[in-house]
Amino acid sequence: MLEKQFKELIAMAMREGYSDIHISGGSPLVFRKNGRIQFDHRLRWTNEDMDNLIAWLVKGELLNRLRTRLSVDFARTVSNARLRMNAFVTIRGFSLAIRLLPGTVPRLNNLNIHPTIQQYCHNEAGLILVCGPTGSGKSTTIAAMVEEINETR
Questions:
Q1: Chain mean position to CA 32
Q2: Cβ-contact 30, 22 below 8 angstroms
Q3: Yes or no: domain 2-101 corresponds to CATH 3.10.180.10
Q4: For 42-100, how does the pLDDT look when each residue is reduced to its tens digit (9 = 90+)?
Q5: Which of 55, 79, 133, 144 has the highest Cβ tally under 10 A?
Q6: Are 25 and 95 in contact (CB under 8 A)?
Q7: Domain ranges of the chain
């Protein structure tokens, strides 16, 4: 039952274009869309729900690490969506931060970044640093750059 609810939540978030979901037991669900935080007070998961969700998502050694370090990063595919997640322990119990990743890698020229970035991908050697705050598109930029390199070499 809980797995079905979670899969439906992920499918809905993908349809609506959310980039992040935050779930904490007893609190409203939190969504991020276009950098803006939105609370959904209609949807609340209990602490017991969170215990069961974490047990379903986090297995084996990863679960042991969560119990000892109180935080663990991992990735899963759920409802045909790639998810990067951080499970962590708060004073109230387990919480989960979810980043929904696009199903396809965008083209560099569709990312609204300077054209010289694409030229860097054609260099024979060198180091490129991609820096920025959380949610600024670092992983997307790197994925698009790797795709450009793979297509042109």
A1: 11
A2: yes
A3: no
A4: 888 999 999 999 999 998 899 889 988 999 999 998 878 889 999 999 998 999 999 99
A5: 144
A6: yes
A7: 2-101, 108-152
